[in-house]
Structure formats: C-alpha cells, structure tokens
C-alpha cells in the first residue's frame, strides 16, 4: 500500500476508500493496521473532496438570452 495517493483519479481513490471502510467495518485488521488504514482513509477522503471541489469549479451553466440562444457561461454554484 503506497502512501502517495495524489496520482489516483477520483474513481480509484473512492474505490480504495470503500475497500478501507469495508476492512475496518469487518474487524479483520489488527489495531495497528486499523490505525494505518484509518489514516490512509482520511487522506483518500480529503483527496476525493478536493477532486469534487475541482470538478464543481469547472462546471459551467449556460446562460440563455430571451430568444433562447446561448449568451455566455456562468460559474456553477450549487450553494
């Protein structure tokens, strides 16, 4: 298990996080391994959040004029 998760894409990081959650919930891992898994899971969670935030920033909503023609784009804001 490599500590560098920065090269993982969102789907890979999410899959790895799901595997960690499953292993922790099953109680298969001894305490020391559970702690290491938890720390890696926290790193993966942060990476997934960062990737989602970056994707959100790239999403743009098309602005339509009165005639229905696109007039430009505005940044997506789900808030």
From TrEMBL:
<keyword id="KW-0963">Cytoplasm</keyword>
<comment type="function">
    <text>Bidirectionally degrades single-stranded DNA into large acid-insoluble oligonucleotides, which are then degraded further into small acid-soluble oligonucleotides.</text>
</comment>
<keyword id="KW-0540">Nuclease</keyword>
<comment type="similarity">
    <text>Belongs to the XseB family.</text>
</comment>
<keyword id="KW-0378">Hydrolase</keyword>
<dbReference type="GO" id="GO:0009318">
    <property type="term" value="C:exodeoxyribonuclease VII complex"/>
</dbReference>
<dbReference type="Pfam" id="PF02609">
    <property type="entry name" value="Exonuc_VII_S"/>
</dbReference>
<dbReference type="GO" id="GO:0006308">
    <property type="term" value="P:DNA catabolic process"/>
</dbReference>
<protein>
    <recommendedName>
        <fullName>Exodeoxyribonuclease 7 small subunit</fullName>
        <ecNumber>3.1.11.6</ecNumber>
    </recommendedName>
</protein>
<dbReference type="InterPro" id="IPR037004">
    <property type="entry name" value="Exonuc_VII_ssu_sf"/>
</dbReference>
<keyword id="KW-0269">Exonuclease</keyword>
<dbReference type="GO" id="GO:0008855">
    <property type="term" value="F:exodeoxyribonuclease VII activity"/>
</dbReference>
<dbReference type="GO" id="GO:0005829">
    <property type="term" value="C:cytosol"/>
</dbReference>
<dbReference type="InterPro" id="IPR003761">
    <property type="entry name" value="Exonuc_VII_S"/>
</dbReference>
<comment type="subunit">
    <text>Heterooligomer composed of large and small subunits.</text>
</comment>
